[in-house]
Amino acid sequence: DQDLYCVKWISWKGERTPVVTQSENGPCPLLAIINILLLQWKASAIWGGPGGVKLPPQKEVITAEELMAHLGNCILATQPQDTSEGLQLNFQQNISDTMTVLPKLSTGLDVNVRFTGVSDFEYTPECIVFDLLNIPLYHGWLVDPQSPEQVQAVGKLSYNQLVEKIITCKQASDSSLVSEGNAPVPSPVPGGTAGPPQPCHLRAVPAGLVAEQFLESTASQLTFHGLCELTARAREGELGVFFRNNHFSTMIKHKGHLYLLVTDQGFLQEDGVVWESLHSVDGDSCFCDTEFHLSHALGKEGATAAPQDHRLQQRQMDQDYMVALSLQQGQDPPSVLSDLELARQLQHEEYQQHRPHPQPAPPQLLPAQAGGRLAGERRQRQKPDLDCTLL
């Protein structure tokens, strides 16, 4: 059922902490906020406190109605201690606006970014939820200041305003409107011989075209400048919500790096997959566990293949090191084995290791290793007084 969400229990700061996962698009704003409250332990006062609803340790599934109820209680708990009439009236108005927005959290919020800062959004009623809970909302879709044409064309417009400007410029017949906000570019004057000064013919790059090119070139809604600003702006250990491509993710900054909480239900049973790194614009990322250590194996199949892959990777690294060392010393580099040859070599060593009563034999060269290093190069020489072989 789309209104049921599986709960994944992780070890977070020494405590067994729940994380709500999702199986399809839609409720990501709700889950991003709820997971922040869980990781911040703000929800503990609501679920475990007097008059609250406690989340049982064996809880595996939670409904959308339960999540809404918990979130509503957390918002009501933000009532200011100051009893002045002005603050209380303002709080009551905020609560009224929030209750209107809450149902949208399970279907998707409409937020309108501005390209001038990672926290710049057009203020809409949807943003009041983040304000009341003191949860920062970020994005990384910024204009590069080193591109003055784009800076001038985009300005302080929001996304919706920029799209309207592009449409207007395309439909406009007035050339001054089409080229508004762009510096004229001098075109070459025919000729080139010395003589009286010639008038400078100007042509302007259409502002709508520049704005449209910006949107097309940044379709991922994350720019390099935006990623740098996001990393600098977020505080160490801060939990916030990251908006990108109509998706809301729980984000944290740990030791100067950004990570997104993995809420895909497909990783429900993967204890080693909790965070996903956010360090690249092109989507290149890696999974980490709850301690932000790189996760190598995914699932039973990956866990089984991990030792063999690790040894193969280690051998490849050894080869690269030997080649670099030989080049540094001015020697001819040793022949390098391909991945297939390394795999065969490891398989041969595995077979030799598990053979009953192995007989010591001099190391042999593999057919593809003529002139290269020995197959058992990393294995120490066997001594007569030892009963085992050191690898």
UniProtKB/TrEMBL annotation:
Against InterPro entries, the record matches this protein to: MINDY, MINDY_domain
Q: Where is the composition biased (Basic and acidic residues)?
A: 375-391
Q: Which residues form the MINDY deubiquitinase domain?
A: 4-292
- Output the Pfam families linked to this UniProt entry: MINDY_DUB (PF04424)
Under catalytic activity, the entry for this protein gives: Thiol-dependent hydrolysis of ester, thioester, amide, peptide and isopeptide bonds formed by the C-terminal Gly of ubiquitin (a 76-residue protein attached to proteins as an intracellular targeting signal)
List the molecular function annotations (GO) for this entry. cysteine-type carboxypeptidase activity; cysteine-type deubiquitinase activity; histone deubiquitinase activity; K48-linked deubiquitinase activity; K48-linked polyubiquitin modification-dependent protein binding
Task: Note down the stretches annotated as region Disordered.
Answer: 349-391
Give the EC number(s) listed in the UniProt record. Answer: 3.4.19.12
Keyword Hydrolase (UniProt):
yes
Q: Which UniProt keywords apply?
A: Hydrolase, Protease, Thiol protease, Ubl conjugation pathway
The record's similarity note reads: Belongs to the MINDY deubiquitinase family. FAM63 subfamily.
Q: What does this protein do?
A: Hydrolase that can specifically remove 'Lys-48'-linked conjugated ubiquitin from proteins. Has exodeubiquitinase activity and has a preference for long polyubiquitin chains. May play a regulatory role at the level of protein turnover.
What's the protein called, per UniProt?
Answer: Ubiquitin carboxyl-terminal hydrolase
Which lineage ranks, top first, belong to the organism behind this chain? Answer: Eukaryota, Metazoa, Chordata, Craniata, Vertebrata
Q: Which gene encodes it?
A: Mindy1
